[in-house]
Amino acid sequence: MALAAGVPCVHPTAYGVLTDAGRLREGETVLIHAAAGGVGSAAARIARGLGAARVLGTVGSAAKTQVADELGYDALFHREDFEHAVREATAGRGVDLVLDPVGGPVRRASLGVPAPFGRVVVYGDLGRDADWTADVWDLWKNNGTVAGYNIGDVARRSPAAIGRYLSTALSALASGELASVPPAVVPAAEVVEVHRRHEAGRTHGKTVLAFAGPEAG
Questions:
Q1: How many whole angstroms separate alpha carbon 40 and alpha carbon 38?
Q2: In this structure, what are the phi and psi dihedrals at residue 78, rounded to the nearest 5 degrees?
């Protein structure tokens, strides 16, 4: 039951941002912000299965860079200074696709790392920063793309697409084609502490609250 807890939302979102909005092609390099989160960690494994040559990510704390192998990344960088690290890791070329749920300064900086014909896909706004602008001239001259993906809107307008992604995810997980990372399961009594850890960015993946069943007798 715990394994399925994050599948209905996380995996369809990951498939959608990679294939629909991101148009990921075999052999490309992907950069995923909030890489240790539920969608980010799912997207890393899915991108690899879709043929990505390299999967890079950024995280909010230096400690999380130590879990790159566990989450399926080639490398993880701290979000505060990822531009230089990404350029160095790609020999100056940049990445083909950026997935960004963070917003604010991270989103603005993300426009500086795509390779020619690169895409930036926005699918969240964790930072709640002030609105940002992109220079259309730069996008045009460099064949760049900025796209948006909102799973709530997709579910309303095209629920069949969500169903297809969910079916694909469940089949891939069941066959072992897509590696699963079980969520952390903690007692419901610890919900306050769980929220504190999430707000402080001290977790990765999904967390599931376990409720005790009715007492016998």
A1: 6
A2: -75, 135
Q: How far is residue 16 CA from its own chain's centroid?
A: 11
Residue found under tokens 């390299």: 54
- Closest alpha carbon to 98 in 30, 155, 148, 184: 30
150-187 CB burial, b ≥16 within 10 A, e <16: ebeebeeeeeebbeebbebbeebbeeeebebbebeeee
Going by C-alpha positions, the residue among 15, 32, 37 that lies closest to residue 197 is 37
Right CATH number for 3-156+165-171 from 3.90.180.10, 3.30.70.1170, 3.40.50.920, 3.40.30.10? 3.90.180.10
Which run of H or of E encompasses 95?
strand 95-100
Among 130-134, 154-158, 204-208, top mean pLDDT goes to: 154-158
pTM: 0.82
Q: Is the dihedral of CA 79, 85, 90, 94 positive or negative?
A: positive
**Residue 189, burial from CB neighbour count under 10 angstroms (0-12, 13-18, 19+):** exposed
